[in-house]
Amino acid sequence: MKDIIRGVIVGLGKVIPGVSGSMLAISLGIYEKCVNSFINITKNINNVIFLTKILIGVLISIIFGSKILYYFFTKYYSYIIILFIGLIIGSINDVRIKSQKKYWYITLFFFIFMYLLSKNNFILNLKEENIIFLYLISGFIESMSSIIPGVSGTALLMSIGMYDKVLNIFSSFYTLYNNISIILPFFIGIIIGLVISILLVNYLLNKYKYQMNNAILGMSYSTIMIMIEKINISLKLIPVYLLLLILGFVLIKKVNHFF
């Protein structure tokens, strides 16, 4: 039961932009166990049981959390975006501490790369007939971010315009059932991303730990810039925006401190 509860907590990081599911897993002391269990999944049945419990918890959190978030996302778009920006700003400090100033060019490169990728609108410009590819890529992004500590997959999905689409599908069992044709590619993308990212990230974090953290930092900065551009700022609401920024910043700090 404890592993399912841990999975529920990690799952919160899959639906709230700015909160990293992998960072929550690290805080709960199950990150390395998850990675090792996945790599050695065929060697011991206990690995399968452990991962299954975690997955059940994550799915519970995603399904029920998505329903609540989708409501607020559609009703109070600008306010939620501002709150999420506060969450991301609050979470960046942990990544910044693990980075090094001498690798500033890596941070700059990934900041520019992510920003230009969003401005190019490669994914957003894909036609409706490419919907399967859209969800395949989204699943890939989501799983990659699940393994890279400090990166919020939901924030990345938001930056490419897929967050609300994925959130809508997972907001109820009815929409899940009626969208099975695009849910399948999404999960295929997750599986592909998990296999690639676990092997790649394990190697990079062991060999190029600080460079990897600088890359994560650059992507985080870029995500904030991209999200700011997605809202229409009203001057008369600036005090409210500032309060939401502070709320998001304090909230993520409290969450990290609690764990």
Descriptive overview:
Helices cover about 80% and strands about 0% of the residues. It has one domain. The model has no long low-confidence stretch (mean pLDDT about 75). Helix 7 (about 130-145) runs antiparallel to helix 8. The chain is built from 13 helices and no strands. The protein is globular, with a radius of gyration of 18 Å. About 40% of the residues are buried. By secondary structure, it is mainly α.
Write the layout of secondary structure elements.
Layout: H1 2-15, H2 21-27, H3 31-39, H4 45-75, H5 77-98, H6 104-120, H7 131-147, H8 153-159, H9 163-169, H10 173-178, H11 180-207, H12 209-228, H13 238-258
Helix pairs in contact: 1-2, 1-4, 3-4, 4-5, 5-12, 5-13, 6-12, 7-8, 7-11
List the total number of helices.
13
How many distinct domains?
Answer: 1
Largest sheet: number of strands, sense, barrel closure: none
Radius of gyration in whole Å, from Cα? 18 Å
Strand proportion: under 5%
- The count of strands amounts to 0
| Topology order in helix (H) and strand (E) letters | HHHHHHHHHHHHH
Helix and strand content put the structural class at mainly alpha
Measured as a percent range, the helix fraction is: over 70%
Poorly predicted runs are none
| CA distance, first residue to last residue | 18 Å
**Residue-averaged pLDDT, rounded?**
75
- The backbone outline, from C-alpha atoms, is globular
